[in-house]
Amino acid sequence: GVAPPPLPKKELAKGRVSATMNGGWSYAIPSSARNKEAAWDFIRFMTSDRAFDIWIESEREIAEAQGHLYIPRQLPIIELNEKNFDKYVFNNPAVPDHFKEGSRIL
Question: What pTM did the predictor assign?
């Protein structure tokens, strides 16, 4: 299960509600940032298909260098999941058929 993080009683008494992200990360640009346009460029790149491709490929290289079979992580973007599973699971002869079938069910 999932539970919210604890909050001091005095904050709860003020009516504050405890909240947290359930995993993941986010990008933000502080209002005091000196180069907001460069920050936006960075965020656009880090959330691009190209950045995801680099990230996923680096995970594959690490797993295989350690002698492990690489099965890509699930991302919150269905199209990227489909692309990654096609490339790294369904079209990879090193992946046993029972893994492929199990992945199709997901």
Answer: 0.65
Q: Report yes or no: 20 and 4 within 8 Å, Cβ to Cβ.
A: yes
Q: Exposed/middle/buried for 37, CB within 10 Å: 0-12, 13-18, 19+?
A: exposed
Q: Where are the domains of the chain?
A: 47-106
Give 72's DSSP letter: P
- Which residue's entry shows tokens 């992200």? 21
Neighbours of 46 (CB within 10 A): 13
Condensed to tens digits (0 to 9), the pLDDT of residues 32-46 reads 999 999 999 999 999
Contact 71, 99 (CB under 8 A): yes
